[in-house]
Specification:
Blueprint lengths: L30 H15 L18 H16 L1 H7 L3 E5 L5 H16 L4 E4 H13 L3 H8 L4 E4 L10 H16 L4 E6 L3 H8 L1 H8 L3 E4 L26
Parallel strand pairs: 1-4, 1-5, 2-3, 3-4
Helix pairs in contact: 1-4, 2-4, 5-6, 7-9, 8-9
């Protein structure tokens, strides 16, 4: 099935079979239930991503052709979504912050839930590290990992803003990625790095290798889409004062 422009299912379309999930509650067919699943997910992700589609991804300026190519790579992944789910093929979107990586994954995930009735887990890197740290206090790290594995996983920015992963962060993230890989359950990862070399250096070759192996990798190398929040109304003085927040 082609991914539609708005990635929204038709209520009368009953030709799309559901996908068998590792857990009994991972797959549902009722349209109302699917809508509820989608809303619940985006409450965790953030409401700014609720209306993200491939059609409304901004492709403009000197990088428009490259941006359209990125959209088409995600669209192609979606066309073969059943096969990609069955094979556990990851989608890895990496590049500088603010280039629309989570927008692209949000569009795919909406299609996955609303058209195929497949539930999806979500965690950001910050939430994952905080969750592991809290559960480690009670020696329940494995229990926490079970809350984010076992279903297709949207993994947003899994490495810290600066530096490399610590030893325990590396071990925990490897266990997550390794579990999904061994059970052939895909990860949709968005990673804030300048390029592939930084991805390998900061994430580590073992984890990055697992993520990238037989994956669809999309490199978003253009400037940020995010608007400038503050603009001077007058020329700056010769010696600017340190801004106060």
């Amino acid at each position: 099935m082609e991914i539609s422009q708005n990635l929204t299912p038709k209520a009368t379309d009953k030709s799309t079979p559901t996908i068998e999930a590792p857990d009994p509650g991972g797959c549902e067919t009722d349209l109302r239930t699917r809508s509820r699943m989608c809303l619940n997910l985006f409450r965790s992700v953030g409401k700014r991503y609720v209306d993200c589609t491939l059609a409304n991804y901004k492709c403009e300026g000197e990088f428009a052709e490259d941006q359209r190519s990125a959209v088409e790579l995600v669209r192609a992944y979606g066309r073969d979504l059943r096969e990609n789910l069955e094979r556990g093929r990851n989608l890895v979107i990496y590049g500088p912050s603010g280039t629309g990586k989570d927008h692209l994954v949000a569009a795919l995930v909406r299609f996955l839930i609303l058209d195929l009735g497949r539930d999806v887990n979500f965690t950001s890197g910050a939430e994952f590290r905080a969750g592991i740290r809290e559960w480690m206090k009670d020696d329940c790290e494995s229990s926490y990992l079970r809350t984010v594995t076992g279903r297709p996983l949207w993994l947003s920015d899994p490495i810290p803003p600066r530096g490399v992963l610590s030893e325990w962060q590396t071990e925990s993230l490897y266990r997550l990625v390794d579990y999904q890989s061994r059970h052939e359950i895909p990860i949709f990862a968005t990673i804030n790095v300048s390029g592939r070399d930084e991805l390998l250096n900061r994430m580590g070759s073992q984890i990055a290798g697992r993520l990238l192996d037989d994956s669809t990798a999309v490199y978003c190398h253009w400037p940020t889409h995010r608007s400038v929040l503050y603009q001077r109304s007058s020329p700056p003085p010769e010696r600017a004062e340190k801004p106060k927040f």
